[in-house]
Design brief:
This protein has 86 residues and is mostly helical. Helix 1 runs antiparallel to helix 2. The longest helix is centred in the C-terminal third of the chain and has 36 residues. It starts with a helix and ends with a helix.
Length: 86
C-alpha cells in the first residue's frame, strides 16, 4: 500500500466522523424547527407514529447524504488544487 492511499483512507475516516457529527447537529436543529420538539424520534420510540419515525429517518438520511457529498467533493477539489500547484 502506498503512502498516498494511506492518507486517503485517513482523510476518508476523518471526513466520515466529521460528517456524522455535522449531520447530527443539522438534523437535530432541523427537527426542532419542523416538529417544534427537542426530542428526535428513532425506530425504537414506540410512542411515536410510523409516519413521524419514517419522516425523521428520511430527513436524517437526506441530510447525512448531503453533508457526506459536500465534504467529499470539497476534499477532492482541494486535493486537485494541491496537485495542480505542484
Amino acid at each position: 500500500m502506498s503512502k498516498g492511499n494511506s492518507m486517503s483512507r485517513s482523510a476518508s475516516a476523518a471526513l466520515g466522523i466529521a460528517g456524522g457529527l455535522i449531520a447530527g447537529v443539522i438534523f437535530k436543529q432541523t427537527w426542532r424547527l419542523i416538529a417544534r420538539d427537542d426530542d428526535t424520534p428513532d425506530a425504537g420510540d414506540l410512542e411515536r407514529s410510523w409516519a413521524e419515525v419514517l419522516i425523521a429517518a428520511t430527513l436524517q438520511g437526506a441530510i447525512s447524504g448531503a453533508v457526506k457529498a459536500a465534504l467529499n467533493r470539497g476534499y477532492l477539489l482541494h486535493s486537485q488544487n494541491d496537485d495542480d500547484a505542484e
